[in-house]
Design brief:
Number of helices: 16
Structural class: alpha/beta
Strand content: 5-15%
Number of strands: 11
Helix content: 25-40%
Largest sheet: 5 strands, parallel
């Protein structure tokens, strides 16, 4: 290991991770971090009564510089609203963006977050490092899996604003199911016979990428394979930012732009690229769409042809990143277990599994304390009458009844208009 790993990767934590990754058929194990994180993080922040002994807040500015340590595990940080427009123009993955208002939204720096933050910081400096490639078992990236509500989508959101804050080109699809089951429409691709475009979700992807990386994309030259259709007085795009701007001037350019843009991204060699996808399993499932209206055919009894996700232009363009991994391209995905718990066991041989564990009692305690004291339910924790249960009892009950799921704890108890405790 000492011959193959160099620089600042020679740390005890990455030795532990590297050892676990070198064993076949094992998920990325974070159990070696348990003792240090529990002892050095939670114990310094929690008093015996369960109340935070100090403001367990991280600085997004420091995280954007790649600064983190194992002692940061269990701490909270916020994304300022003014930065959310540039870090998440596509929106947030998962339920957190819908349930919790942005001004009160706090994210926990958990063990998987620490691992991926360290990885992204090193990926920025040395995207072609053999050591980083070995850490993901020579695969295209990581696939987060775990029970519903354990925070897989939260980790994806954290990876997006870590990578973008560091200046890494980040392509973000908050929901693959928005493309496959979005109750919108599909249309045949003008460029790829047999494939279909999803204009509305693709437009959201293009707008978000342009807004998040307009400066970076303007520095990447672009030469179209053939002259693109332009209006009188409209110039041909000469860089990727101009290509995305070109696509937004007419709706029939969206599908073509998606193909040309991802082709150019795949041809990049020295620029680090991170692709973040939520609901990854939807890429291998049938969509809700079908092609062909019986009323418009000669045979009204012939049913429409179902469209599989593999026939979407987005899936076609993402496939080369999976089948032919590039050192400078990292894919981070998560499985959506909202619809069915069977997806908890979903895996893909192109991605290395990274297990996200349920929230521990200490993590739930910190979350409850934050949202109870920083939201409309704060009034329920004023102990003037002495009738409220202690924070210890509340956290214990929440952990039991919500199956150690931060999402379920918020939906069932914390987010209710009137605080109801077990």
């Amino acid at each position: 290991y000492q011959r193959r790993v160099h620089g600042d990767i020679l740390s005890v934590y990455f030795f532990s991770i590297l050892f676990s990754l070198s064993l076949p058929h094992l998920s990325l194990s974070l159990s070696l971090l348990n003792r240090s994180s529990e002892g050095r993080s939670y114990s310094t922040r929690m008093q015996r009564s369960g109340v935070l002994s100090r403001a367990a807040q991280l600085s997004l500015t420091n995280l954007a510089k790649g600064r983190s340590s194992i002692s940061d595990v269990g701490r909270l940080y916020r994304v300022p609203p003014e930065r959310d427009a540039t870090l998440h123009p596509e929106g947030w993955a998962g339920a957190i963006g819908k349930l919790i208002p942005l001004p009160k939204r706090a994210l926990m720096f958990r063990k998987p977050t620490f691992l991926l933050h360290q990885y992204l910081a090193k990926f920025l400096r040395q995207p072609n490092s053999p050591a980083l490639k070995e850490l993901r078992n020579d695969k295209a990236g990581f696939l987060l899996h775990g029970r519903h509500g354990v925070g897989k989508s939260v980790v994806l959101n954290q990876c997006v604003h870590f990578a973008r804050s560091m200046g890494i080109l980040t392509l973000f699809v908050p929901s693959i199911r928005h493309h496959t089951h979005g109750n919108l429409y599909v249309e045949p691709s003008l460029l790829l016979p047999g494939y279909f475009d999803t204009p509305k979700p693709t437009l959201d992807f293009i707008k978000g990428t342009r807004d998040a990386h307009s400066s970076l994309l303007s520095k990447i030259p672009f030469q179209p394979p053939t002259a693109l259709a332009t209006e009188p007085g409209e110039a041909q795009p000469s860089n990727l930012a101009e290509l995305l701007d070109w696509s937004l001037r007419a709706s029939d350019r969206i599908g073509l732009t998606l193909k040309l843009f991802l082709d150019e991204i795949r041809n990049l060699k020295d620029i680090p690229v991170v692709i973040v996808l939520d609901g990854y399993e939807a890429l291998s499932e049938p969509t809700m769409y079908a092609f062909g209206d019986p009323s418009l055919t000669k045979n009204p009894d012939s049913p429409p042809t179902p469209i599989h996700a593999s026939k979407l232009v987005l899936t076609r363009q993402l496939q080369p990143f999976l089948s032919e991994p590039r050192d400078n391209v990292l894919m981070i995905s998560a499985v959506d277990t909202t619809e069915t718990a069977q997806m908890e066991g979903f895996s893909d041989p192109a991605l290395h599994l990274l297990h996200v564990e349920p929230y521990s009692e200490a993590e739930l305690r910190i979350m409850v304390q934050h949202y109870a004291m920083n939201g409309p339910f704060r009034q329920h924790f004023v102990k003037k009458t002495g009738m409220m249960p202690t924070l210890d009892r509340i956290c214990y009950k929440l952990a039991v009844l919500s199956d150690c799921s931060g999402l379920l704890a918020y939906k069932r108890f914390i987010g209710l208009p009137t605080w109801i405790y077990p």
